[in-house]
Specification:
304 residues, UDP-N-acetylmuramoyl-L-alanine:D-glutamate ligase, 4-stranded mixed β-sheet
Length: 304
């Protein structure tokens, strides 16, 4: 399998499991605490790697404790750091996340740090051109646009994880072959009132090969310019939903590189997301391929 490369957020998360959302100006005992790598693109690459893909992260990290953790974390999960530039003396992108066991919700407070923006070099562009899929998430916007142009000229598919309404993303959207927005993004960007109308509006305006709108516990919808198809969410006992969307996108990139059709990719990726929610952490909770196949078989889905 040709590799999946990614440009986007790589975040050091600190997760606190709590019995309720903390009230302002009080103290609350945490039930558990753990450090985990996060960020849509980097976590998606880890998910794809755990499924069996050859993955590489393209980005800038620094040498503070969080940056060192993020570098080691990628390598631990088999994601190549050959295309990472390390710049000393900066502060990493990091976040603090409360996981509410009463509601299975997550609340995130983040700080972007001050690492200089990524500017692609020839080695990084070559890695993109040699890929099957380039994943972007709207972070590192200028480099993502540069990378998407490189990908398009080389016949590499661009998968855009459109979860955040970042300034200027309308410049990146036209390069997406596989556009996977959250429902919030889709409605907010298009001004439409329902996901179906938003999917059609995004398809007509930006001409991707497919639009897949994720709708959390409701599953989602897929539109390829001809037919609209709904795909399910799989009900599980969720303990940590943080990163569930990220692993969905990574799984979809894996499916694309593996030659799955888009609807089967939706089903498979939804299963990956569901399994992840049953375990703590964004990256360490991502399942391996055989686990996903078995999960689907148990639910009567055998064609994968």
């Amino acid at each position: 399998m040709k590799q999946i490369t990614g440009i986007g957020a790589n975040v050091c998360d600190t997760l606190y499991t709590v019995s309720e959302y903390p009230k302002e100006d009080t103290k609350l005992k945490a039930e558990n605490i753990m450090q985990s790598g996060g960020g849509p693109c980097a976590t998606g690459l880890v998910a794809a790697s755990r499924l069996g893909a050859n993955c590489a992260y393209i980005g800038v990290l620094t040498d503070d404790p969080q940056g060192k953790f993020l570098m080691e974390d990628l390598e631990k999960y088999g994601v190549s750091t050959d295309y990472v530039t390390v710049k000393s003396g900066h502060t990493s992108f990091s976040s603090c996340i409360w996981l509410n066991t009463a509601t299975a919700s997550r609340t995130c407070v983040f700080h972007r740090g001050n690492i200089p923006p990524l500017a692609l070099n020839d080695k990084q562009r070559q890695a993109i051109g040699d890929s099957a899929v380039l994943m972007v998430d709207g972070n590192e916007l200028e480099a993502a646009i540069d990378g998407a142009k490189t990908a398009k000229s080389a016949g590499v598919k661009v998968l855009y994880d459109a979860g955040g309404m970042y300034e200027g993303v309308e410049r990146l959207l036209p390069y997406a072959d596989i556009l996977i927005p959250s429902e919030e993004f889709a409605l907010g960007h298009t001004g439409e009132k329902c996901a179906l109308a938003a999917a059609k509006a995004l398809f007509e305006k930006y001409s991707p090969r497919v639009v897949v709108i994720t709708q959390g516990k409701k599953g989602g919808i897929m539109y390829d310019g001809e037919a609209v198809r709904e795909y399910p969410a799989f009900l599980v006992d969720a303990v940590d939903s943080n990163g569930s969307g990220d692993v969905f996108h990574g799984a979809f990139a894996f499916c694309t590189a593996s030659g799955y059709d888009y609807y089967k990719s939706c089903i498979f990726s939804s299963a990956v997301s569901a399994i992840k929610c049953t375990r703590m952490g964004a990256r360490c909770a991502a399942p391996e391929f055989e686990e996903v196949v078995e999960f689907l078989k148990e639910r009567g889905v055998n064609e994968l």
